[in-house]
């Protein structure tokens, strides 16, 4: 029997309140043999690709990366005086006089985040209201069956969960004006707790993936990886940004602690080179620089909370690597490359990705592992084998809304 990997977080990180909604065991990491062997060529080192299954992390509906973030937000939601609800963003509004009674959030029509917030609300015995923007990205606009797009997939699941759904149109995906909705709720006696899209603007939004870094490091040693002994490259989707940002801050702290515990030992397990964390963007709407600035900000904010006292100096733009070559035609648009990537993973590995995020990540990862960069990296560090981690963040429930684009 495999022993459970206990995640050891250092203080002050270990003291930050967290309400578990994930399974107590780490989400699984397993090898992707077929795409590893087809990615290994005479021009590349041995490529070993693994998947971390964040789509299998929680018993709650449509499990995915947002539950990990929400674990650190729940203590505030249920506290007698929540701090980070809407008042935090708009100080003119009244602070809540008691624990939240309804969670309110926003997203694109097929948003996975809204479903995870709605399921969490129900789990906590609260109501949920979700604001769904029909114009965010191009999923609805380019669907050959927009009426179905607005009913299937995550919209259906949101209804099943009993969330109140309000659809609206806005060309700028960030213009959800929650304030009137929240005021209306307050008027009718509710205590609404606002969670911004993807939970990334939430002050605690980066902590879940900072913790995931420690979880991954524990799994690295259990997996007995070849080569450097750790994942040299980690590919993860970057949408609202706090998933990749959390990983950046968590690994930064971890590597700092490892370095200080074995500063000069040549036998040390300290990696000679920090892990390369690569965020794959999925939307051409905003330029890469916009996302880089946000990810840096979120990583520093999480870094400060977990114990990087000089997060502003310790985490720099050099740590933020975002790739915008695979964004395709639009957020939520399944173009030819995205469709190929979905089919490839399904047909070769029997693994189903989601059409909005992870299909683009897989496309970017396959491209990058076969590029010169891998060969150069392996040569520079004397490695015959390069270990790669693909983070599967969930989202498969959206597939049925894309019935006309996928298959
Ligand atoms: C939200 C989401 C992401 C992006 O995570 P961010 O933290 O918003 O960058 C990736 N994959 C899936 C399936 C998601 O639902």
How does this structure look, described?
The protein has 407 residues and is of the alpha/beta class. Helices cover 38% and strands 14% of the residues. 52% of the residues are buried. It binds pyridoxal-5'-phosphate. Pyridoxal-5'-phosphate is lined by residues 64-65, 112-113, 198, 200, 237-243, 354, 357-358, 393-395.
DSSP, total strands: 10
Q: What sort of overall outline do the alpha carbons produce when their principal axes are compared? A: globular
Mean pLDDT: 93
Strand arrangement, major sheet: 1-2-10-7-8-9
Kindly, what is the distance between the CA atoms of the first and last residues, rounded to a whole number of angstroms? Answer: 39 Å
Strand content: 5-15%
Radius of gyration: 21 Å
Instruction: Please tally the helical runs, counting DSSP H or I stretches of 4 or more residues.
Output: 16
Low-confidence parts lasting 5 or more residues at pLDDT below 50? 266-270
* Helix-and-strand structural type: alpha/beta
The major beta sheet can be summarized as: 6 strands, mixed
Which hetero compounds are present in the coordinates?
Answer: pyridoxal-5'-phosphate
